[in-house]
Amino acid sequence: MYATLTADQINAIVHATLDPLPLDGRRILVLIPDGTRSGDIPLLFRLISAALLPRVAALDYLIALGTHQPLTPEQISRLVGAIPGEGDYANVRVLNHDWMYVETFAHLGTIPSSEIAALSGGLLTETVEVRVNRLVTEYDHLLVCGAVFPHEVAGFSGGNKYFFPGVGGAEVINLSHWLGALITSYAIIGTVGITPVRALINRAAAFIPTPKTCLAMVVQPGGNDLVGLFGGTMDEAWAQAAALSADIHVRYVPRPFQQVISVMPTMYDDIWTAAKGMYKVEPIVAEGGEVVIYAPHITEFSYTHGRLLAEIGYHVRDYFVKQWERFKGYPGGVLAHSTHLRGIGTYDPAAGEQPRIRVTLATGISAERCAAHNLGYRNPESVDLAALRGREEDGILVVPKAGEMLYRLER
Predict the structure, then answer these.
(1) CA angle at residue 180 from 126 to 370, to 5 degrees?
(2) Cα–Cα distances in angstroms (integers) from residue 27 to residues 54, 55, 82, 320, in the given order
């Protein structure tokens, strides 16, 4: 167990990172996560604002939503622990990334197909347009402040992921997520270093002309306190945080389990976000075993992408790859989410689909809707968590606050 950083220690790191930068009289934009990520954002909001407001001409925050739903004013206040536009923060704005409007974005350039082929190891050979929220081009300096965890698409989250998918256009989001799906979450999650997806994200972020600095948080497992905070360039700060995350956010077990119950916290409000309860435990589920996503509060597959998911359902990667003419018109990010939740497996037109494990929802989503999406159903009222805890010897594991800790088998 790592010791948590005190507020004074965090403040010292914030000042050591920001004080040397030539920010006096400049306009600063800080990118922060939404409520689906752990981390003490209220503390960082206060400390960053206190460090910068006396120096800068403007200080605003942009919530890197990706394609998540925008936050209400009340949700924003809870996220940052203050009311923007009032009191000490009278001149501070906290903005949603308005990804649903085309005018939000600026075109920065194009990555040619030859470069995509090289970055992806030949898995993809297409040109991709790089668009990003135009706000990142309208300020003098960008500060990314967010946590780093094992991630199902990029290996580890954080760093330049706050630009893509955080405030990026659909083109890079879809291409990068589909690349991760082709590699599979099973293979890429928790991989330290520059994965093909990370390389693609970094390449897209290199188009952003504005100077960038990173404050990368590492969060104590199961809470919001910080055990690490690294400031510096995007690459340096992220790499240090990812190394620490790999040490404390990966839990090794000696043998696989027949059933894993992932208890999802309320910060995940749909299956699109709560699917992390599958990604993070898939490696420790035995062949033919089951992951149960326990989240009685969830009633929707995706508030943003629900219609498309109802059309395609949840399937293993090869179900889409081997029927590409049928599915090539769907966004790569939606296809990727589908394969990540369903897990690895095989598909043959004659033999059909053979997932390695079963995925069951114990949520507020009905049995009929689960079946229509190609997922199992269990009434959440039938899940007795108290009776299931402590049954590891029986092949059953209950994971509290699932979605951030990655579970792996001991080597």
Answers:
(1) 115
(2) 12, 10, 21, 45
Residue 243's alpha-carbon distances to 36, 125, 371, in angstroms, are: 22, 31, 40
Predicted local distance difference test score (pLDDT) of residue 68: 87
Q: Which residue has the tokens 């991630």?
A: 151
- Give residue 74's identity as a one-letter amino acid code: E
Write out residues in the chain with pLDDT < 70, as ranges. 1
- Whether omega for the bond prior to residue 165 falls within 30 degrees of 0, making it cis, is yes
% residues pLDDT > 90 (the chain): 93
Residue type, 105: F
Token pair belonging to 6: 């005190």
Q: Which two tokens stand for residue 299?
A: 């009633």
Sheet order of strands, 396-399 included: 376-377, 358-363, 285-295, 257-263, 396-399
* Ramachandran category for residue 313: left, alpha or beta (phi over 0 → left; psi -120 to 50 → alpha): left
Statement: the pTM of the whole predicted model exceeds 0.85: yes
Q: CA–CA separation, 99 vs 304, rounded Å?
A: 11
Q: Exposed (0-12), middle (13-18) or buried (19+): which is 256, by Cβ within 10 Å?
A: middle
- Tell me whether strands 58-63 and 27-32 are parallel, antiparallel or unpaired: parallel
- What residues are paired with 354 via a beta bridge? 346
